[in-house]
Amino acid sequence: MPSAHVLIESPIRSSFRVEQVRGMFDVPNAETVKHEWHVDLPIETKPWQIGLIVGPSGSGKTTIGRRLFPDALFHEGYEWPVEAAVVDGFPAHLDGAAITQALSSCGFSSPPHWLKRYSHLSNGQKFRCELARLMLEQADTVVFDEFTSVVDRDAAMVSSAAVAKALRRRGTPRLVALSCHFDIVDWLDPDWVYNVATAKFEWRCLRQRPPVELRIHQATTAAWSLFRGHHYLSANLHRAARCFVATWHDKPVAFTSYLQFVHPRVHNTKREHRTVVLPDYQGVGIGNAVSEWLGAHLKSQGYRFMSTTSHPAMIRHRHRSPLWRVNRLGHVAPAGGTSTATGLGLSQSISRVTAGCEYVGPPLERAAAASTAPSVPGTTPALLASGRSAPSKKAPSRTRLLSLRGASRRRPGKRGR
To answer: How far is residue 121 from each of residues 131, 207, 280, 331, 344, measured CA to CA in Å?
Structure first.
């Protein structure tokens, strides 16, 4: 098993201030400051994918990571091009499909932002770029120092869940995360945890991440200004759109909307217009969840619900999900040409692969569809648009609850590498 006896000595050079501190705080007159401990990690007894070494700042996590995993790729940050786009910062031998899939799997699913310079991204987006690039390394084990230290805590939890899901799907590389934050343990869901402060090691199995409890609020088109810069295709919103905003911990995280489906033969049908999840909350299925909630909500009112998307992750989800029927998948030919598309949900896209789908899942329960609740902080459309938070003084807004639960995983011994 990986084990190490760690001894860190810092020689003390005498000076007036050093002697002053010794006198003020009764520090022993020693020649060095020593920090010594012994670490044993019995991680060779079971297969594993993700490990976490956690403890306060200055407790020795980085030293332990280097000593116990000397052959691993130790990550302290990549060099990114100053003027080129983020996608051009990945190694040249990788193709675009692999890069965009890695970015999406880490919860960074905003193609317009992939074209930005790395220095122009938020800390959360930079962190996910580092994760995506790390996932594509040809290494058996990687050690990520200061894991989630530079992002806010909601983004840290969501990104931890996203990268854990991606790594378990890929099966490689193994990740050892070094962090001083204990709030990510349930979200990263590691196979083992070593607490440096208590020198305690434990295996974890049959766990799942905490649920994401979303609250759905009716909104006006004014709320779109908070989300418009993050849609993967267009920043435009139709003025007739019916809009909803999802909040988590009283913060706006997602937007969805619908329009009347205009068709000469198909009636009583609505179509999805814009669905966006803010970058810090991508990667745990919020976009698919609010889209499916919208379908169930409209179905409870007697409508059919159609949706056309070209987002690869959403297409993959709907192709596998029993809640959706894919009526068309492929390119749409220009007017007058021969189209590969048949059925409903035609798109005007020619160059992109799109999928036309219909929601076929159950309707929303009547009690949930008709429920009303007082407005909560941040639900007034004008406040959502500005990013501020305050209770509404207007009439109560209709709100609904939506819960996203993490899928339970198998025991480490049952999962193949």
So the answer is: 14, 33, 12, 32, 38
pLDDT tens for each residue of 348-378: 444 567 899 999 999 988 545 544 333 333 3
Q: What is the DSSP string of 115-160?
A: TSBGGGS-HHHHHHHHHHHHHTSS-SEEEETTTTTTS-HHHHHHHH
- HSE at residue 310, side-chain half, CA atoms within 13 A, is 18
Asked whether residue 132 carries a pLDDT value surpassing 90, the answer given is yes
> How far is Cα 417 from Cα 412, in angstroms, rounded to an integer?
10
Handedness of CA 8, 14, 17, 23 (dihedral sign): positive
User: 344 pLDDT exceeds 70?
Assistant: no
* Parallel, antiparallel or unpaired: strands 192-195 and 174-179: unpaired
Nearest Cα to Cα of residue 6 among 38, 42, 40: 38
Quote the CA–CA distance of 2 and 72 in Å, as a whole number. 12
Residue 3: partners with Cβ closer than 8 Å, 6 or more residues away: 38, 39, 40, 41, 68
For residue 366, count CB atoms less than 10 angstroms from its CB and return exposed for 0-12, middle for 13-18, buried for 19 or more. exposed
User: What is the reported pTM?
Assistant: 0.76
Alpha helices in 233-310 (DSSP H): 286-299
Question: Three-state SS for 241?
Answer: coil
Q: Which residue has the tokens 């001083």?
A: 180
* CA 330/CA 350 separation, integer angstroms: 9
Judge whether residue 416 has pLDDT over 60: no
Mean pLDDT of 201-225: 88
The sign of the CA dihedral 183, 184, 189, 194 is negative
